[in-house]
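Sample A.
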Amino acid sequence: MWDNAPLLRGIAAALFFFSAVAVLYGAVHYVVHLPQLLPVQSVRLSAAPERVDAEEVLKVVRQEVQGNFFTVDIERLRVSLEKISWVRKVSIRREFPDRLAVQFEEHQPLARWNEAALVNQQGEVFVAETELALPGLTGYEGSSTEMSQQYRQFSRQLAGLNLQLKQLVLSPRHAWQLHLSNDMVVELGRDAMQQRLARFVAVYPYSLGVVPEEGGEAERVKWVDMRYRNGFAVRMREGNA
């Protein structure tokens, strides 16, 4: 092999080529990682946040934006920004030569969750503070998405009665209970909830929602159990017959 001149020249050429590539790569890597080369000068928000604290965003950006345009860790910045209250998702892209474009998706609250957190429109639980008057969802861990869907369904069914769903409760045995805006409680149980609520909606204007004579309470019925196949049970408020 050592007497094969063409082979030796080929090996030498290959070694020279790979050495040149390695040197070039090292030089480029060194230059790209110079902090003074194309430093990030600004961060642009695609839209002004409604609920996210702008000062908190600025604080995170100052902590996490390190290096230059090429080396700034976008994934790390995204993760840090998504820890801020009211932030659901963040997308970030580079805008040559010196800017990052940040887009926020904020949580849109649907209800309160177990009196300790909030639920967004996607049924996800998140922690934030709000003074909004929101309905309550009370359920077990992992049930927030299903409860959000049922809340919308039950609310649509009640809309014709001019009643709002003030609180929705799901027991560990998967039984549903509705607390309405007139302080009436409706038991739907575990099965055929929509059909049972439809029966409640059908009979409410003629019996359950009848307003007593002037001077009486605005509503007489306190609790309705719709789990019976061919009827329902009621409990009256104290002081009513």
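Sample B, a different protein:
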Amino acid sequence: MEIDLFDISIFDYTYVYKYMFWLYLIIPILIFWYLRRENLVGSFERINLSSLDLFEKKSFNGIAFVRHLNFLVFLVGLSLVILALARPHDDTDIEAYKKKNIEGIDIVLAMDVSGSMLAEDFKPNRLEAAKKVAMDFIAERPSDRIGLVLYEGEAYTKVPLTTDHNLLLNAFEDVQTGMVTQGTAIGVGLVTAINRLETSDAKSKVIILLTDGVNNSGDVDPITAAQIAKEYGVRVYTIGIGQEGMAPFPVQTLFGTQMQKMPVEIDEELLHDIAEITGTKYFRAKNQTELEGIYDEIDALEKSKVRVLEFKTDPPEKYYAVLIWALIFIVTSRIISNTVLKSIP
């Protein structure tokens, strides 16, 4: 622990116990008491003198000067004690401490945005429901770096790993289907997410892969991608989204967009295998409530690791230098009182 005794930024600090400043009311009371004791204040009476000669050659009283100076030294020491009791903190140091000691989790959300995500078994559809729940999840994890990968027949990084969650949340506004080739390339989406974590130095690296279909595109086998994730120490939570049986899909016809019932096909065996290979779980969300519960469960599973790291040491204090100076002034005052000002009976 480094203590800078000549740090002059004390007035830029924030204080934990601001109510301690009320103790400064003691200072004017002590000053008034001292002035009365030294007969420096009081009532003035008229004195009749025949001459002003007594006032012309007033000699300097060195002992009185030292006594007054010693009282001032004591007051400075007392003031610094009160300042130390308020527990000053330097906000910039606190932020540096957090970055150094909170080892957050790097998370990549790999989201299927193929055309089938427009099915309306979720309201208003699967894609919008998945976006909303993911945004709520992000808002609950302020200390983590989070990225966003979107995939259909191809995959691309929408937002790389970042702690700027406002940027990330804004990016969800223009997430839509049909931005790349059609299809569902689960393997390519997973590998793209792994690439975002490849150089991560985080203690914990996580991918949340969401899809509503089967792997029918791309040149990367999803199981191979899962094995790569395992090699890099990346855990992949998989989520299948969609109700069982039939679901309403928007279909373009000669008469415009019409809703037609189509079978829900999710390769749950594949998603379960990916999760098992990387040491996590597969979840099935048949409605939005279940989807919210899944993200809550993942949040709880991963957040416990962050808390252990976040509170492993106490936050830095900034009152040490103030307290040292307070002791210097008070001890100096006592030394003067017991040497220069010591009276012998």
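Observation for Sample B: Confidence is low (pLDDT under 50) at residues 96-101, 306-314.
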